[in-house]
Amino acid sequence: MEAVARIMVEDLLDLEAEEQEQTAVWGLMDDPWKESGAKKDRFEWRKGVDLYVDKEGRISRPYLADLDPARADGTVVLRSVVVLIDYGEMYSATDTTSTSGATSGDFIVPLRISSVAVVKEFIDDFFELCPLGELGVVLMYNKTAHVLTAALTSNHQMLKDLIDDEISRLESGRSGTSRSEGAVRSTLNGPEAALEDAVVIDGVRAAQVSLQAGLEKCYLLLNNGKSYSRKEVLCIWNSTATHDAGLIGDTIDVLRTHNIQINVISLTPHLHVLERLTSTCHGDYTVIRNEAALKDQLITYSKAQAPSTDLDNSKDLIPIGFPEWEQGLCAALCTCHNQLKFNSYACPRCLARNCSIPSNCAVCGLLLAKSLDIARCSKTSYNVPPFQPLPPNKKDCYMCDRVVLSGAGVCLKCNQVFCLDCDVNIHEYLLPCPGCQYIDLLSRQGLQTRSTKPEPPLPEDHPQYNFYQDQLKLIQED
User: Fold this and answer.
1) Which of 13, 127, 254, 477 is deepest in the core (most CB within 10 A)?
2) What are the residue boundaries of the RING-type domain, all occurrences included (predicted)?
3) Is residue 131 included in any domain, yes or no?
């Protein structure tokens, strides 16, 4: 009797261990019939799920994106970004030496004027690719940091105007030497003359900057912003040292604790404090050599970023309101500018008037957006994989229906052929593949399943031919 009982206990332990292993394989999912108490096969509810095999031979399932955000192909579109601009050290464009005696060929000579111009272009690109994002700008000079906006905003024109006003104010405080005279003096006398021509505020040269002061201002801006968005700081560094009043290590620990990502683009040689800052706060540290590289690097940060388990922990639903454009016979007071206007957007929650969207309602704080903004975000959230080039052959383009003689490419998911012009249009502007969208539409309507795909238009000598044949065999076996 004891032997039978021992065997039964061992069987129960083995069954429990097997069930835990199955849970680890299928993911942490709640049993849909656990609450109802129905006794069903634990794999019965998964029979309707289609299995797919990707290029590497791994099995993927449509619901994996819902289980683990790290497995999703999407990207983060709700972003709160503060641009931290170093407006400290500046040397003339004609300088040939640096503070360390190196020539300008070793690294780029910092030019803060050109950096500010590139940042204004970045603002336009950011709101074009992330219309639901928010931006703030902080300038560092004179061992302090100056915040241009009291809160993060989505008004790109206001941000650029504030930057121009602040730069004009700082340049008007320059000591009596003109720019041309300063360039000649810096060329003849070296960087010391250029530092004498730097901006002087309250009797102190603005060449000395404090990274700690700038990071603290960025933290205050982001901490008062949206709790559900990705918090980022993009620092454009022009100096060769930082002059901090306190311990910058404590500030870095606070930023890491609040999951704030720090990215640094440096126009000066490598600094250890910047490397420690970016590595601790899950960011990137890039040293560039010219203005063209600065523009290319800013374009990468203007696009929607990939999700990260270290930075994106919020999984709550986000309320979004779609206001209506109302044209009234009498003027109404807008809540964003406190001005009387005839045409405005009405918040669907509190009926407050707002001039422009996307923005947050000034009364109830609801995120207001258009359906077009959501569509633009969803388009930029998923990257279309590059099409596989085909050898010269007479094919019809799936998108424009023209005969393609050369330069054709095939989508590896829907097996449709596209010409070179349509290929560029899909990857640069349209983003979703028309063939893949059509198959998804048919599968939703029940007219066609994703398993019934057309034969690949590839010759037998094509490198992807064997992969397609193996994939079709697996589908037929299932």
Assistant:
1) 127
2) 397-437
3) yes
Which amino acid would we find at residue 407? Answer: G
Is the pLDDT confidence value at 211 over 90? Answer: yes
In whole angstroms, give the CA distance from residue 280 to residue 276: 6
Backbone angles phi, psi at 468, to 5 degrees: -65, -40
Q: Which of 215-229, 302-316, 384-398 has the lowest mean pLDDT?
A: 302-316
Q: Show the domain range for 393.
A: 388-477
Q: Distance between CA 229 and CA 311 in Å, rounded?
A: 10
pTM (two decimals)? 0.59
Q: Give start and end residues of each alpha helix (H) in 107-245.
A: 112-129, 156-172, 179-189, 191-196, 211-223
Q: Do both 352 and 419 map to the same domain?
A: no
**153 occurs within a structural domain:** yes
User: Are 258 and 131 members of one domain?
Assistant: yes
Q: Are residues 237 and 276 in the same domain?
A: yes
Residue with tokens 């048919």: 442
* Residue 442 maps to a domain: yes
3-state DSSP call for residue 103? strand
367/426 same-domain check: no
DSSP-H helix ranges across 303-401: 371-381
Alpha helices in 260-312 (DSSP H): 272-280, 291-302
The angle subtended at Cα 210 by Cα 278 and Cα 204, nearest 5°, is: 160
**Which one, of 241, 209, 204, lies nearest residue 139 by Cα?**
209
Instruction: For strands 230-237 and 79-86, give the pairing.
Output: parallel
> Of 355, 380, 405, which residue constitutes the final position of a domain?
380
Residues 85 and 114 in one domain: yes
19 is a domain residue: no
Q: In the beta sheet, which residues pair with residue 145? A: 140
* Gap between the Cα atoms of 183 and 446, Å rounded: 72
